[in-house]
Design goal:
Length: 374
């Protein structure tokens, strides 16, 4: 069958994919809820977290902590826990209020002439202060682990995710980890959360789940979250949420095939992934030496290069000059497709790219930046 709803039904592909996702996901996650896009996976996680708190009698917990400059999708709930003014400010009156936590960006929001270690310490302190101040009203903290993608490839300092997990656990706040962009090998591990050994309460997956061949997303939950919804029928504890193409059989089959490729080809094994990551890092180092590249930031094969008029003084190009857009047009002339986030050039080659193709990517990017910033 091309499609069979999961409204009261199931099928072998959905069951087997759930089993395999649980097997490879961070430990503690034991339940799977399907949808078809990253934003819907986040919406589901938000509603699950909110309802779980309400069902547990924690009725004061009605708010979500989220990072400034966050991006979790373009549906209304996902936008509510976002924080990119260009994308989100126009819709502010439609959104529910959230609790902002300063992004742990070590590059674009400096404290002046202080050491990187001191900046890092202050970022951790800001997270601590925000979480403790809202400990009684927050039902969950929503976070992109390690890298805030749409914000311009902001890489979090080492240990930040673990710090947030420890604080949220201490104060009884659920942790929602959005791995829609970072999941399935982008950062060198199957999931970015693995780098810091954390166990989220809810995990959002999309994009790489099917290798990009068909739309499919999933929200994984712990048994404790799932148990909050159990009860007698008359209690109406059910999670009343669904999508027409939830658990689409074709998409589930493709996701299973993609996971099989990861296993059979050992995509993330050091012998396969390591040389590509080394070539990627070498390319980023070369870009960092260009006169108009203010910073490069990356984990694994996911990162970006930020362009500025005067990098040493942190003076940006005027937005109207669209230098990032100019650079990607130059790259297109040379046969390489790139994407700009303002004046940040995104560099996310597919995991299947060869070392030679990664070298080509950076050679063309270097030429294109030099041409666009003349």
């Amino acid at each position: 069958m091309a499609h069979s709803t999961l409204l009261g039904l199931t099928h072998p592909g959905a069951v087997e994919l759930a089993r395999q996702l649980i097997a490879v996901a961070p430990s503690g996650l034991s339940r799977v809820f399907y949808s078809e896009a990253g934003a819907t996976a986040v919406e589901i996680a938000l509603k699950m977290a909110y309802q779980a708190c309400q069902l547990r009698g924690e009725t004061r917990r009605t708010r979500f902590l989220r990072l400034t400059e966050a991006y979790h999708g373009d549906t209304v709930g996902a936008v509510s826990v976002g924080g990119i003014s260009l994308f989100h400010d126009r819709f502010r009156s439609l959104l529910f209020p959230t609790l902002p936590v300063p992004s742990p960006d070590l590059f674009r929001h400096s404290y002046g002439a202080v050491s990187p270690a001191e900046v890092r310490r202050r970022r951790f302190a800001e997270a601590t202060e925000a979480i403790e101040r809202h400990a009684q009203e927050a039902c969950a903290f929503v976070i992109e682990p390690l890298i805030q993608g749409a914000a311009g490839m902001i890489v979090h300092p080492e240990g930040y995710l673990h710090h947030v997990r420890e604080l949220t656990r201490k104060h009884g706040i659920l942790l929602i980890v959005d791995e829609v962009a970072t999941g399935f090998g982008r950062t060198g591990r199957l999931f970015a959360s693995e780098h810091e050994g954390i166990e989220p309460d809810l995990l959002c997956l999309g994009k790489g789940l099917t290798g990009g061949y068909l739309p499919l997303a999933a929200t994984l939950a712990t048994e404790a979250v799932f148990a909050s919804f159990l009860g007698e029928w008359a209690e109406a504890k059910t999670f009343y949420h669904g999508h027409t193409y939830t658990g689409n059989p074709l998409a589930c089959a493709v996701a299973l095939a993609s996971l099989q490729v990861f296993e059979e080809e050992q995509t993330l094994a050091p012998a396969h992934y390591g040389p590509k990551a080394e070539r990627y890092a070498a390319g980023m180092e070369r870009l960092s030496r260009l006169p108009h590249v203010a910073s490069v930031r990356w984990r694994g094969l996911m990162g970006g290069a930020e362009l500025m008029r005067a990098p040493a003084e942190r003076i940006p190009f005027p937005p109207a000059e669209r230098r990032g857009h100019r650079a990607i047009l130059e790259a297109r002339k040379r046969g390489v497709l790139l994407r700009p986030l303002g004046d940040v050039i995104v560099l996310m080659p597919p995991l299947a790219a060869s070392c030679e193709e990664i070298d080509l990517l950076f050679r063309v990017t270097e030429e294109s930046i030099l041409e666009a910033c003349r």
